[in-house]
């Protein structure tokens, strides 16, 4: 007789892959890491010209945006990403401090960490919102105490993701380490998101009781 716990784990594997795509697939990683790398290279090879680095980053961001549109991405999402690159370039130009290109990214990571922490505090953990939407559960998962607890604990993994980026980025930003910031952006995008998805999925499955029917089946009285 197969253990129900084993069934739960095997049933949830396709959802982990879907969650990876939804929260940070390879396309999103390219969109997040390529413009900063382009800025760093353009800045370095042009004799530390912020204008050149910013121009190269915007061009690369625009090309990636066109590619994403061709692949069916939402125009609003593409526009927001491109505007973020443009805003970073403008901020760096205005301040004359090349590392300020990454200031927007520092702000978004800090805001994201705060948003995830607030969602846990008000008992609407964002991971539960995402997974519930992915599985078509609407808000049924919130009426299952075990699922609510599991999503809350697993959401702390995502808080940790943003905190790790801040711990790495802030010291580099403070010393204007543009090339190191560009490299860190690559390392802390796709690899970190992949690790975060795997770890949060493990937390979800380990927190649920052995007799729980699984993420797909909230126990609602």
UniProtKB/TrEMBL annotation:
Keywords: Membrane, Transmembrane, Transmembrane helix. The chain crosses the membrane at residues 50-69, 76-93, 113-135, 156-175, 181-204. InterPro entries: UCP010219. It comes from the Bacteria. Pfam families: DUF3159. This is Uncharacterized protein DUF3159.
């Amino acid at each position: 007789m197969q253990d129900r716990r084993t069934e739960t784990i095997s049933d949830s594997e396709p959802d982990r892959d879907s969650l990876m795509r939804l929260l940070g697939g390879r396309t999103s990683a390219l969109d997040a890491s390529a413009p900063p790398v382009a800025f760093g290279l353009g800045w370095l090879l042009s004799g530390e010209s912020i204008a050149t680095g910013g121009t190269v980053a915007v061009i690369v961001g625009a090309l990636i945006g066109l590619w994403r549109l061709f692949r069916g991405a939402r125009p609003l999402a593409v526009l927001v990403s491109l505007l973020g690159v443009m805003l970073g370039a403008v901020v760096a130009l205005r301040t004359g401090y090349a590392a300020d290109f990454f200031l927007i990214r520092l702000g978004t990571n800090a805001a994201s960490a705060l948003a995830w922490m607030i969602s846990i505090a008000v008992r609407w953990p964002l991971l539960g919102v995402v997974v519930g939407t992915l599985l078509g559960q609407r808000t049924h998962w919130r009426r299952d105490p075990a699922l609510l607890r599991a999503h809350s604990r697993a959401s702390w993994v995502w808080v940790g993701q943003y905190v790790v980026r801040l711990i790495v980025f802030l010291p580099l930003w403070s010393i204007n380490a543009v090339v190191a910031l560009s490299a860190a952006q690559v390392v802390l995008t796709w690899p970190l998101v992949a690790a975060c998805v795997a770890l949060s999925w493990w937390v979800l499955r380990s927190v649920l009781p052995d007799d729980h029917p699984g993420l797909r089946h909230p126990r609602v009285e």
